[in-house]
Design goal:
Helix content: 40-55%
Strand order of the largest sheet: 3-2-1-4-5-6-9
Strand content: 15-25%
Number of strands: 9
Number of helices: 7
Distance between the termini: 33 Å
Structural class: alpha/beta
Largest sheet: 7 strands, parallel
Order of helices and strands: EHEHEHEHEHEEHEHE
Radius of gyration: 17 Å
Length: 239
């Protein structure tokens, strides 16, 4: 798990799962760059990361800005994409076409165009790790858009694994995780959601960002995995 001398770029790496992944990679000796659209979030993350870590504020829906980011970074070893806003839950009778399309901008097209920009700069032995979710495997009412995103990212992972070989491309599929993704909810509603989810799944608890970060590090360091989607959900898809 030694990453000394390797450069890891985490898009969406300033909070939640992304920040936990960046911190774990840095602990293993990697030179880490975190990227977010929010400059305040970047500064806050750098205050938590080791000296020598870097951060940039970039709009991941701006393809020209993303290209410029990777041109400026130069050669890298690993790309991790964890960026995305909270899931947009819409039933068929309330489906908003513009809002549905917007949801794809970061989580799917943001990932796709980030990989396009990063791929020429990935060194031999490098990897890409994307983020999907268990909604693609077990959607509920109102999850049509979110589930579609998850399914699309899983399919993209397999397609890129073929196209970019021998660069390794994989994805992590988290279940319910305690993270800032849910900060727009009231504390009462958020804690109730966590409790209800924990009570309904085999492991009896929700995930923590540190749990999920280990999966990204596993894909970074596992030399024989590509085209794989790793589910970490405490058994949610079984419940």
């Amino acid at each position: 798990m030694n990453l000394h001398g390797q450069r890891v770029v985490v898009l969406g790496g300033t909070s939640g799962i992304g920040l936990a992944t960046a911190m774990l990679a840095a602990e293993r000796g990697a030179e880490v760059t975190v990227v977010s659209g929010n400059p305040v979030s970047v500064d806050r993350a750098l205050a938590q990361l080791p000296a020598g870590s870097r951060g940039q504020a970039v709009d991941l829906t701006d393809t020209a800005a993303v290209r410029a980011l990777f041109e400026g970074l130069g050669p890298i070893d690993h790309l991790v994409f964890t960026a995305g806003e909270p899931p947009a839950l819409m039933t068929m009778d309330t489906l908003d076409p513009d809002r549905a399309r917007k949801f794809f901008e970061v989580r799917f097209f943001g990932a796709l165009f980030a990989v396009q920009a990063a791929a020429p700069r990935l060194r031999p032995g490098g990897s890409v790790t994307l983020t999907t979710g268990i909604a693609g495997d077990r959607p509920g009412p109102g999850w049509s858009v979110a589930a579609s995103i998850c399914g699309a990212v899983s399919a993209l992972t397999r397609a890129l694994a073929v196209e970019l070989a021998p660069i390794r491309v994989n994805a992590v599929s988290p279940g319910m995780v305690r993270s800032p993704l849910w900060d727009s909810m009231t504390e009462t509603d958020r804690e109730q959601m966590y409790q209800d989810t924990a009570a309904a799944i085999p492991l009896g608890r929700i995930g923590e960002v540190e749990d999920i970060a280990q999966a990204y590090l596993s894909f970074i360091t596992q030399p024989f995995a590509t085209g794989s989607v790793l589910t970490l959900d405490g058994g949610t898809v079984l419940a």
